Q: What sequence folds into this?
DNA sequence: ACCTAATTATTAGGTTCCTAACCGTTGTCA
DNA sequence: TGACAACGGTTAGGAACCTAATAATTAGGT
């Protein structure tokens, strides 16, 4: 029932930043341009992906959660485990599970052995929902990379892998180094 | 005063999806893998970028807004114009301006000629804030693309441009085509 | 001139995320 | 055994986004 969609008006978002490259004379313009292109592509892709999911009446968070539940054996999943896998906090998982349970896609059951634990089950409605969404979702994302040939895809994955490696190097000490300014 | 930061725990978010490639036998696994790599890189980059901004006590939305205000001549910016440039709704701009004004970084003044309009000004505190943040922010994003040499950056920009072109082709009719499932 | 339509900014209400604080349960170790 | 830390899930409150509705102002058409 969330219904249709916004028309994705918001894409000139980074144009200003791209012009801005020359405002950072202290560094290589190609670095600035590349970074901004990366950020912008990521942002647009995420936005459109979210929109596709919206057209199926779901969202990123919920869809991720359902997909991850699919990988678990039935009744193995706990909220804390889901938080780890999805990368959101346990509090967020609580909220997502509330929504999913209200819609009948999942069910919470207490663990018989450890009374702190909750076991999360995908209902048959949940399975049916995923079966309904996945074909279209597959088609959507294959259409995104369709303009790239096999070699280009290989290159892109390689380059992104390099960036991601860098990202994870910086993840741990991100604040300590960025806090030193000027 | 929002203070330090979260420690960016949440990056294994897409591992499950990547394993999932073989669950979509109906399509090319390289398409699936490339798409997921793209989504994941974008997501991680956005998350880390947000975290860097957090370490300066600001956020994506607010920082973008301030940077865009910097490009405007003083007193040319209106909320509606800012909404266009940033890609968020006017309602969101209202909220962001509320926060920024409360912190003394911008100021709203009525337009003398058209009483519907509000003119948004960067205060001297706003300028000072940007001057404080920009050097570190530049250093941050140049460190991200640093592992790529000049030719690799050129390639990456080229490939991302292809993706973005595709994205904008699909943006208009996203829902009509994705709504047909199976 | 006047009624209507378009435009501006804002508010109201909803969603998804966060952090922080809470409470109950389990494990540990004197 | 009994205090107490650690852990699991939830709740409360806040931020950034959205859509839809609102109030005030300007522009257009006859």
A:
């Amino acid at each position: 029932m969330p219904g249709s969609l916004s028309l994705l008006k918001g894409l000139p978002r980074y144009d200003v930043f791209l012009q801005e490259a020359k405002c950072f004379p202290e560094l290589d313009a190609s670095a600035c341009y590349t970074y901004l292109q990366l950020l912008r592509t990521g942002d647009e892709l995420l936005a459109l992906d979210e929109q596709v999911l919206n057209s199926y009446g779901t969202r990123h968070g919920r869809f991720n959660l359902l997909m991850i539940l699919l990988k678990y054996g039935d009744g193995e999943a706990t909220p804390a485990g889901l938080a780890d896998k999805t990368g959101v906090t346990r509090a967020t998982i609580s909220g997502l599970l509330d929504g999913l349970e209200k819609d009948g896609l999942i069910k919470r059951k207490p663990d018989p052995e450890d009374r702190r634990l909750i076991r999360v089950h995908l209902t048959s409605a949940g399975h049916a929902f995923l079966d309904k969404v996945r074909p279209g979702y597959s088609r959507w994302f294959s259409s995104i990379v369709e303009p790239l040939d096999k070699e280009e895809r290989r290159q892109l994955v390689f380059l992104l892998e390099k960036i991601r490696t860098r990202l994870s190097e910086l993840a741990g000490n991100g604040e300590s180094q960025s806090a030193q300014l000027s």
About this structure: Residues 60-130 of chain B form a domain with the Arc Repressor Mutant, subunit A fold (CATH 1.10.10.10). Residues 2, 59-62, 88-89, 91-92, 95-96, 99, 114-117 of chain B lie near DNA strand D (CB under 10 Å from a C1').
